[in-house]
Amino acid sequence: MDDHLRSDHLRTDRIRAGSLVLRPWLPGDLAVLLDAYRDPAIQAGSRAPVEDEEAAARWLRAQDEGRAAGLRHSFAVVDPSLGDGPVGNVVLVHPVPGSGSGSAEVGYWTAAHARGRGIAPQALEALTHWAFTAFAGDGLVRLDLLHQVDNDASCRVAEKAGYGFAELLPAHPPWPLDGHRHERRAD
User: Fold this and answer.
1) What Cα–Cα distance (Å) separates residue 159 from each residue in 86, 121, 123?
2) Cis peptide bond N-terminal to 40, omega within 30
3) Is 168 in contact with 178 (CB distance < 8 Å)?
4) Of 133, 134, 131, 136, which Cα lies nearest the Cα of 183?
5) CB neighbours of residue 23 within 10 Å
6) Confidence of residue 176 (pLDDT cuts 50, 70, 90)
């Protein structure tokens, strides 16, 4: 597949994971995004807080621009049993293609009303499979999941999605606490 076709495909990918659908974020998701970011747990884990409609619109644009640049592939996680709107987010932050690093970072969040249903590990597993398939030709061999040490739920999600604990990371702004790095390697 040539780079142009591959790029267009990566911009529009939708991923099915059991009953979940992972799709690009849409402008119509603004209210759902704003509501999700009112949750203190999501705020605490965010590097880009969303405090008002203007910030939510910027966040949505940043996801689209990141996808267009091939550096950030953010997916709205939709669980049809909970409605039509997103209940979470999974993201692959990929270094500049051709950089030779062989690694990328993943992240996720789940809206408060959707937690405890296994959505995060299922969505993360689907993103992981997609990433290793979509970027195998770029040499992607490792995915990292980072979180603060006090986030026990993220440790459980990482383990359920096959991300083993790799190392303790010292606190570094914007994170006030030490962190964990979990990793998963391509099969």
Assistant:
1) 24, 9, 13
2) no
3) yes
4) 131
5) 16
6) confident
Average pLDDT over residues 161-179: 90
Its pTM surpasses 0.85 = yes
Length of the chain, in residues: 187
The answer to whether 144 touches 104, Cβ cutoff 8 Å, is yes
In DSSP terms, 180 is beta-bridged to 147, 168
Nearest residue to 156 via CA among 175, 136, 180: 180
Which among 60, 58, 53 has a CA at the least distance from the CA of 89? 60
Structural tokens at position 14:
């939708």
Token output for 86: 């997103």
Vertex 100 angle, CA 96 and 104, to 5°: 60
Residue with tokens 């884990």: 45
pLDDT, mean of residues 153-171? 95
Question: Looking at this protein, which amino acid is placed at residue 42?
Answer: I
Nearest to 34 by CA among 107, 111, 105, 97: 111
